[in-house]
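Exercise 3.2. Students should predict the tertiary structure of the chain below and write it as structure tokens, then compare their answer with the key that follows.

Predict this chain's 3D structure.
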Amino acid sequence: MSLPPTPSQSDINAEKKRFVLPAEISLLLGLLFITFSIIFIRTSNFGVAVLTSVPFVISLKLDALTAGTWSTIIMIVLLIVLIVLTKKSVKSAIMSLLLSFAFGGLIDLASILLKGLPTEIGWRVLYYVIGFLAIPLGITFFVKSGYPMLPFDSFVRDLSSYYGWKFSLTKTIFDIIFVSFSVLFSIFALGGLKEVGIGTALSAIFTGYIIRLYSQWLDKVMVVKPWFPKLRAFFSNTEPETIAIK
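Answer key:
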């Protein structure tokens, strides 16, 4: 039986230089970055974020429910599909379900807290840039945490892992499908293009690539370790050390 390779001195030194980020903080950062950035992008009026393009468009037609509630409903549907396609662990699905409710609530909260921001063109450009860069960072923090993710993203991660697809490419295809549905629903159900704009299209094309860049950079400066390893192991079937965004 062969022994595992001994880490070189350079590997050990590189490990010491990286700071340790608790996995639970990584998870929280991911959730906050994504939800508030989504509202920043919507406020920019250049098109909503890809993640919420479908729920925001649907909420304009079926406005008895908020966009946050529609986000939760759609994520539950994605979670059910994922369980069927990949035999996703029920324990992992439970936490993703809880995160879906937290996400929906934070979307509505962020909409209230960020209401009334200045809407001059310079501010709108700034809002879009913030959201464009922060959403991929939030997704990266989610992946690195090793905990189950929002169904929006665990759908992509688990499918790509289960079938051996590249995460960044799968993410891009998934985003384009989401945006295409939003465009068609907007045109046929709302009588014109609503919520979806050039900003949405740019996010759909580049988010997967930016996630990969963030992942490569963060791997050089930090390592994610859980405060509660048994809790993370209980909910997740994936060891974070094996997660690679390609």
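Discussion points: The first strand starts at residue 19 and ends at 22. The chain is about 70% helix and 5% strand.
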